[in-house]
């Protein structure tokens, strides 16, 4: 590939990255519906015509934003089954502090509207979080009567709900103490050695 | 008191109740900021001049709405310390199905905005939920290293976060199985006999 072609690709990937970052920030701030292509292009400093070129439509852009955030969040997750305890739990908990997670709350409010066009996309975000946690839960570590699926919903739910409380009143939520409580309550097979 | 005075009071309390119900529905649907006194009065079928008379201002109305919702939610909570397990847990879980709880998600999105005027009011909602749960957790039932405060944040968080997942994709969340998982993971002193 000649140098000019390489630079064209770099510019394209760079402009895509800038658009995704600008959209993530604006969706978090104003919500999905309230944000226009013009807002996003202006913030990214890129012509608005390039948005359909990169993403097809606004839902395609949302998908790119959600995928991108998901990657950031999932980086904090441990990679092997049975690896939830110990330092990995610290990583999972540290996701709560990511500025990006505010976006999840803003979008959630739109998702609970009747006939929300972004429901399916958001559902995929939750599903991906559950899938990632689920893959790391050995069924044999759970107490009788507890399915790995239900345990996963509960653990992902705890992270979402602790996050919500911390966003509203950080001074009322001692994340360190909550982490210790999760660790103490985990079934023995998932607890730190 | 004569009959006309009694009827005036009834009408006043009834109009207050209608205004709170209309506001709760509109806040859940459109958010706090997007809802005007005109919308609320029209929906309640009551003159808009009566809103400041009853509630002072819009924040006063929000406070009345949150108090009202809180009463509905807290009705599901057990009333004595150490009473979380068993049927009481069923009641706590059943709060997830209340239509009213959608309001909490819509308002939460506004609360995470910079300089949100309703943050303090919303923080009181979370604080009241925690206080109610906290009062029912005997410290001696918790595993070492777990504070009642952290356990409370975790349990309230689990309810909030399971609720969020269920709102987004009810078919992906088996509330019955999640309840069984919570019960199995509760420390022995809080578990159903």
TrEMBL record, chains A, B:
<dbReference type="InterPro" id="IPR001647">
    <property type="entry name" value="HTH_TetR"/>
</dbReference>
<dbReference type="InterPro" id="IPR039538">
    <property type="entry name" value="BetI_C"/>
</dbReference>
<keyword id="KW-0805">Transcription regulation</keyword>
<feature type="domain" description="HTH tetR-type">
    <location>
        <begin position="13"/>
        <end position="73"/>
    </location>
</feature>
<protein>
    <submittedName>
        <fullName>TetR/AcrR family acrAB operon transcriptional repressor</fullName>
    </submittedName>
</protein>
<dbReference type="InterPro" id="IPR050109">
    <property type="entry name" value="HTH-type_TetR-like_transc_reg"/>
</dbReference>
<keyword id="KW-0804">Transcription</keyword>
<dbReference type="Pfam" id="PF13977">
    <property type="entry name" value="TetR_C_6"/>
</dbReference>
<keyword id="KW-0678">Repressor</keyword>
<feature type="DNA-binding region" description="H-T-H motif">
    <location>
        <begin position="36"/>
        <end position="55"/>
    </location>
</feature>
<keyword id="KW-0238">DNA-binding</keyword>
<dbReference type="InterPro" id="IPR036271">
    <property type="entry name" value="Tet_transcr_reg_TetR-rel_C_sf"/>
</dbReference>
<dbReference type="InterPro" id="IPR009057">
    <property type="entry name" value="Homeodomain-like_sf"/>
</dbReference>
<dbReference type="Pfam" id="PF00440">
    <property type="entry name" value="TetR_N"/>
</dbReference>
């Amino acid at each position: 590939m000649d140098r000019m072609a390489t630079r064209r690709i770099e510019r394209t990937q760079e402009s895509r990255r800038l658009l995704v970052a600008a959209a993530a920030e604006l969706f978090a701030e104003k919500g999905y519906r309230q944000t226009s292509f013009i807002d996003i292009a202006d913030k990214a400093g890129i012509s608005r015509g390039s948005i359909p070129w990169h993403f097809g439509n606004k839902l395609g852009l949302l998908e790119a934003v959600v995928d991108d955030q998901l990657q950031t969040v999932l980086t904090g997750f441990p990679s092997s089954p049975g690896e939830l305890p110990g330092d990995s739990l610290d990583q999972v908990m540290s996701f709560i502090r990511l500025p990006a997670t505010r976006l999840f709350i803003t979008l959630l409010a739109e998702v609970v509207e009747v006939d929300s066009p972004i429901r399916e996309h958001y559902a995929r975000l939750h599903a991906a979080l559950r899938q990632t946690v689920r893959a790391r839960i050995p069924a044999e570590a759970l107490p009788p009567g507890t399915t790995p699926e239900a345990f996963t919903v509960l653990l992902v739910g705890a992270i979402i709900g602790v996050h919500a409380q911390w966003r509203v009143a950080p001074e009322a939520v001692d994340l360190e103490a909550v982490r210790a409580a999760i660790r103490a309550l985990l079934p023995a097979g998932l607890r730190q050695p």
